[in-house]
Amino acid sequence: MDGYFGSYVLVAALFAIGVAIVAGALTANRLLRPTRPTPDKLTTYECGVDPVGEGWAQSQVRYYVFTYLYVVFAVDAVFLFPWATIFDAPGYGLTTLAEMFVFLGFIALGIVYAWRKRVLTWT
Length: 123
Known about the structure:
By secondary structure, the chain is an all-alpha fold. It is built from 4 helices and no strands. NDH-1 shuttles electrons from NADH, via FMN and iron-sulfur (Fe-S) centers, to quinones in the respiratory chain.
């Protein structure tokens, strides 16, 4: 496996072996599983509720807004963990503190904007 294309051949061989293992496992599953379809097993299942009516339903936009706000706070929390670990390192204290206050200021502006637009009220 020397030469320029040697490592590419190795990667391709490992990829082919991986595909073969997955395909073999799926084929073994298909051959060994019991197959007893019944009308109850073939009905649509969602969260334990029997399907009633049409499959199309309107959802209000406020659910998406709450989801978006959750994502913003999750990203904020993810950013806080590395900041907390490097804050104690020598030479990074005041710089990282200022950066974190700028970041939290942007988050606070977003919350104030959502609050002023009455997005956070649940009616």
